[in-house]
């Protein structure tokens, strides 16, 4: 069985866009965790947060990783908080490799500023708000990953090629 490629990283680091490029390069299946969760709950990510709260969303995230980890190789575009639970990281490590995408706070801000689909950025939509949350999470991201790729100033194709070379 080939292993999964889990793309992790802060919101706006390009996980979804890059995973589509990687899919073209490698010809593997691609799974978008947030899309899977929204489909299985029958509502959007902001609606899940609003209706059931973040803890419920994290449960759905773990359930999604459990089921992905049992399937054959795929490129998995993870939600930005997927590695916040150790049990998730353990499952991911057992079933694949974890690639961290990074970006500077100002890069993230410019990528996400017009989006309305990220509940955790609703009250943090500024470079300093993003920087603060990124700072809180950077240790977990770095500890969880096998390899790291910076995305600042690069095209999705360039990032995907860099990842493919590191596999
Ligand atoms: C989250 C990131 C989002 C989504 C949810 C929570 C996070 O995914 O899963 O809003 O905790 O960082 P993206 O990283 O794809 O935006």
Automatic annotation (TrEMBL):
<keyword id="KW-0418">Kinase</keyword>
<dbReference type="InterPro" id="IPR031322">
    <property type="entry name" value="Shikimate/glucono_kinase"/>
</dbReference>
<dbReference type="InterPro" id="IPR000623">
    <property type="entry name" value="Shikimate_kinase/TSH1"/>
</dbReference>
<feature type="binding site">
    <location>
        <position position="80"/>
    </location>
    <ligand>
        <name>substrate</name>
    </ligand>
</feature>
<comment type="similarity">
    <text>Belongs to the shikimate kinase family.</text>
</comment>
<feature type="binding site">
    <location>
        <begin position="12"/>
        <end position="17"/>
    </location>
    <ligand>
        <name>ATP</name>
    </ligand>
</feature>
<keyword id="KW-0028">Amino-acid biosynthesis</keyword>
<dbReference type="GO" id="GO:0016301">
    <property type="term" value="F:kinase activity"/>
</dbReference>
<comment type="pathway">
    <text>Metabolic intermediate biosynthesis; chorismate biosynthesis; chorismate from D-erythrose 4-phosphate and phosphoenolpyruvate: step 5/7.</text>
</comment>
<feature type="binding site">
    <location>
        <position position="34"/>
    </location>
    <ligand>
        <name>substrate</name>
    </ligand>
</feature>
<keyword id="KW-0963">Cytoplasm</keyword>
<keyword id="KW-0460">Magnesium</keyword>
<dbReference type="InterPro" id="IPR027417">
    <property type="entry name" value="P-loop_NTPase"/>
</dbReference>
<keyword id="KW-0479">Metal-binding</keyword>
<keyword id="KW-0057">Aromatic amino acid biosynthesis</keyword>
<keyword id="KW-0808">Transferase</keyword>
<keyword id="KW-0547">Nucleotide-binding</keyword>
<comment type="subunit">
    <text>Monomer.</text>
</comment>
<feature type="binding site">
    <location>
        <position position="16"/>
    </location>
    <ligand>
        <name>Mg(2+)</name>
    </ligand>
</feature>
<feature type="binding site">
    <location>
        <position position="58"/>
    </location>
    <ligand>
        <name>substrate</name>
    </ligand>
</feature>
<dbReference type="Pfam" id="PF01202">
    <property type="entry name" value="SKI"/>
</dbReference>
<comment type="function">
    <text>Catalyzes the specific phosphorylation of the 3-hydroxyl group of shikimic acid using ATP as a cosubstrate.</text>
</comment>
<feature type="binding site">
    <location>
        <position position="118"/>
    </location>
    <ligand>
        <name>ATP</name>
    </ligand>
</feature>
<feature type="binding site">
    <location>
        <position position="137"/>
    </location>
    <ligand>
        <name>substrate</name>
    </ligand>
</feature>
<keyword id="KW-0067">ATP-binding</keyword>
<dbReference type="InterPro" id="IPR023000">
    <property type="entry name" value="Shikimate_kinase_CS"/>
</dbReference>
<protein>
    <recommendedName>
        <fullName>Shikimate kinase</fullName>
        <ecNumber>2.7.1.71</ecNumber>
    </recommendedName>
</protein>
């Amino acid at each position: 069985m080939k292993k999964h490629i889990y793309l992790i990283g802060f919101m706006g680091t390009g996980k979804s866009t890059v995973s589509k490029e990687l899919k073209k390069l490698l010809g593997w299946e691609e799974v978008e965790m947030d899309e899977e969760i929204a489909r299985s709950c029958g509502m959007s990510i902001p609606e899940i947060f609003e209706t059931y709260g973040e803890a419920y969303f994290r449960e759905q995230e773990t359930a999604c990783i459990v089921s992905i980890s049992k399937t054959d190789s795929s490129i998995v575009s993870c939600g930005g908080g997927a590695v916040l639970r150790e049990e998730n990281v353990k499952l991911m490590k057992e079933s694949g490799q974890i690639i961290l995408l990074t970006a500077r706070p100002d890069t993230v801000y410019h990528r996400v500023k017009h989006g309305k689909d990220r509940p955790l950025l609703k009250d943090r939509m500024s470079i300093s708000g993003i920087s603060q949350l990124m700072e809180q999470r950077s240790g977990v991201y770095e500890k969880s990953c096998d390899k790291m790729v910076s995305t600042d100033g690069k095209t999705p194709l360039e990032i995907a090629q860099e990842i493919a070379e590191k596999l």
